[in-house]
Specification:
Blueprint lengths: L6 H10 L19 H11 L16 H8 L28 H4 L2 H9 L1 H4 L24 H14 L11
Helix pairs in contact: 1-2, 3-7, 5-7
């Protein structure tokens, strides 16, 4: 969790019970706020990936292309995921718009390439198996550029209500 979640989000989850998956019956317990800053820091330290630390999110990525990739004519992420408060077409799991608030870029970049490596048993497929894009006509099929474009689109995404649900 320390390499995946931004420190601010981790602190919110631990101290306030903030969540983005209201469909789950289980959740993290809310902890005494006096221990949250140290625990959040300790979790990040314990999960530190030194080889990831110098990575910074892309600054100039094609957010419009990222939205295309997220949509039904692209990788169809919106088939399963909520996006900007809109339900997924078949399921309505985690709203992708919260990614910018929750996730660290280095983790996100690696997760998209191989979700099963991070979450064995996940239903989320890899859209870049063996480094080859499922959408070769978008951004010349370049894996790094496509993932950067998705990240850019998520940085601009809106969530109605703008606050995740507390317990």
């Amino acid at each position: 969790m320390g390499a995946k979640l931004r420190r601010e989000w981790l602190s919110q989850v631990l101290g306030e019970g903030t969540r983005v998956r209201p469909y789950l019956a289980t959740h993290m317990p809310t902890l005494d706020r006096t221990v949250v800053p140290a625990l959040a820091g300790d979790l990040r330290t314990a999960d530190r990936r030194e080889d990831w630390e110098s990575e910074v999110p892309p600054r100039e990525a094609a957010a419009a292309k990222g939205r295309d990739l997220l949509g039904g004519d692209g990788l169809a992420c919106v088939t399963c995921h909520r996006f900007e408060g809109n339900p997924g077409l078949l399921m309505s799991v985690l709203d992708l718009a919260w990614s910018r608030t929750r996730l660290e870029w280095p983790w996100f970049r690696r997760y998209l390439v191989d979700p099963a490596a991070f979450r064995p048993g996940t239903r989320m497929p890899s859209f870049w198996p063996e480094g080859h894009s499922a959408m070769p006509d978008i951004l010349e099929g370049d894996t790094a550029r496509q993932i950067a474009a998705i990240w850019a689109a998520l940085q601009e995404a809106r969530v109605p209500g703008a606050e995740p649900a507390p317990y």
